[in-house]
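Q: What would this complex look like in 3D?
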Amino acid sequence: MAADIVIRGGQVVSADAVFEADVAIEGGKIVAVGDAPGAKTTIDASGKYVIPGAIDSHVHFRTPGYEYKEDWQSGTGAAARGGVTTVLEMPNTRPPTGTLEALKMKQDIAARQAYVDYGIYGLLDEHNLDALEALIDAGVSGFKCFMGNTFGDLPAPSDGAMLEGFEILARRGMRCTVHAENASIMARRQARLEAAGRSDPLAHLASRPEVCAIEAVSRAVVFAEWTGGRLHIAHKSSKDALYVLRDAKRRGVDVTVETCPQYLLLSTRDHERLGNALRVNPPIREPGHQEPLWRALREGVVDMIATDHAPHLPEEKARASVWQCDCGFPGVETQMPLMLTEVNRGRMSISDYVRWACVNPAKAWGFFPNKGVIQPGADADLVVVDARREWTLDQSQLFSKSKISPWHGRRVQGAPVMTLVRGKVVMEDGRIVAEPGWGKPAKQKMPAPAPRNVDKTTAAITAVRETLRKVG
Ligand code: DOR
Ligand code: ZN
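A: Here is my prediction, written as structure tokens for the whole assembly.
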């Protein structure tokens, strides 16, 4: 019997090996790796790698609410161009994804506009703890807790609310991503810097020193360990809190960690060239943080590469005072070429890349082995990679609405040349060739919940009071 598609002659990449094999696809699934049957359509991948689609656990697609910055069509199109076949989208939209109504609104938009598969984050904040269970039942893939303030100005929840939220999520086995920076230290320092007349690019870095991250990462780990909750540390930018995470992992805390290309490859030296446009939370730090982050990836203390794709208009990033500039920049489209360049430079292997960009995020978010791996039974989320192609990143060519990138003008070697999502070619030679709406919510199966200290949760202690009241 003929398969729908066979990708022939490519070098198939797993986290442990690279081997020549054909990949056969039927009904959107991989059905054979190795000797493939005949096919209705053949894709020639000779001289190229075939890798699982990248899974980006951190993107902001801005819709609903800030459609002029990005929407789900431009955002997921950018993802497909970047070889990313699944994204997890953040809740700092307008309205924020902290209620069932807001989630439904976003789900409808995503269903109509997405080119690639997706998960949607629910918000965990001070006032929506009674909505968390409903958000889970309605299909969020995880939660986001903004411990430190960033775009959208969502105030950090109190420790009391955060712990109670973690108790609820631990009972349901859901992972909570934290923006781990201490809000009150940053607010105070920013006010002091502004009062002192500082509004230069490095003032932003001065307002958010590493101690903000060390403290917030530590606090989040304490809450996750106490509740048995699953934790994910977003955009690890500095070497400093790595010891906290290394120890937590040794103790068996279920914490996963992402870093981003901007923290692996840029430093304050790039501020001289890029000025306020480089403003991002957490900030790009001094030289000396990059090498320890690479080492932490190799050791498994940092699990994965995400992008914090944070689109804004160029004019929103070019204001004279750093405090007036929006934070972040697009990244979902440029991550793969940047990292392939590091593969070509010998800083990592192509299997390392697949481990950090595909396998580990799939495992952390309960998508594995349906996604993140090339084997029979998995979704045919595949990227054909030309690892030799040399080219220059150009912000005007981005599919994202945000035509401003710190990577503009950077020479790279390596490019995703074809992206398939569940067996459908979505991107070919940089062109989007599928219809919006092809992307679907990624099917998730998290491991069984493992809550701890359940007799001391807010639910437990208030239930005791209820019982006493009823008995009395
Ligand atoms: O710089 C950032 N921008 N960091 C974040 O964590 C959020 C993001 C945004 O939404 O713009
Ligand atoms: Zn973010």
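A: To summarize the key features: The CA atoms of residues 80 and 427 lie 6 Å apart. The longest strand covers residues 3-13.
Q: Very helpful, thank you.
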